[in-house]
């Protein structure tokens, strides 16, 4: 039985793929005069923006990340809460199950991209990218969360949609559940549970 459930945001709570990749495409076309497909850029999903830009060979990281975030606002209308997430969070709250967030978003990005959806009231602790020196897939973000929350590792599970989330959880010594509604595929991911939809999260309470 799990009494603490930690969530990733992008691809787990929020469907942000179109907005994130479209805004990055626009930035890279402007910066590098090169067209990238979504398939080319899928690797950026689940890691901090600054890390993604470094992998793309961008040098002026801070300014570039700011510009990417400004373009993201143009596509924000594509962002939505996955169907079934809010109902599941309400139910977990009613069951007195503690919930938290470990995300690759910075605090500023969390405020701009997540807070508007009015879901923060369901989460007791939030660890953002700027709360730790190392980031997913390193275990530090989850270990920081455990430190802040006092959660029992053996009764805590992390729900995410990427291999970065999986490695972060396993290296931190907690179980991992794959959010298949965001991941779309379980290939290459060794999860303790594969969840087809958010309502399946409730079954973890009874494990």
From TrEMBL:
SUPFAM superfamilies documented for this protein: HAD-like
Domain of life assignment: Bacteria
A GO CC term assigned to this protein in UniProt: cytosol
GO-annotated biological processes: DNA repair
GO MF, one example: phosphoglycolate phosphatase activity
Cross-referenced InterPro entries: HAD-like_hydrolase_sf, HAD-like_sf, HAD-SF_hydro_IA, HAD_2, HAD_sf, PGP-like_dom2
Coiled-coil blocks: none
UniProt xrefs under Pfam families: HAD_2
Gene3D superfamilies linked: HAD superfamily/HAD-like, Putative phosphatase, domain 2
NCBIfam families (alphabetical): HAD-SF-IA-v1
Protein name: Haloacid dehalogenase superfamily, subfamily IA, variant 1 with third motif having Dx(3-4)D or Dx(3-4)E
Organism classification: Bacteria, Bacillati, Bacillota, Clostridia, Eubacteriales
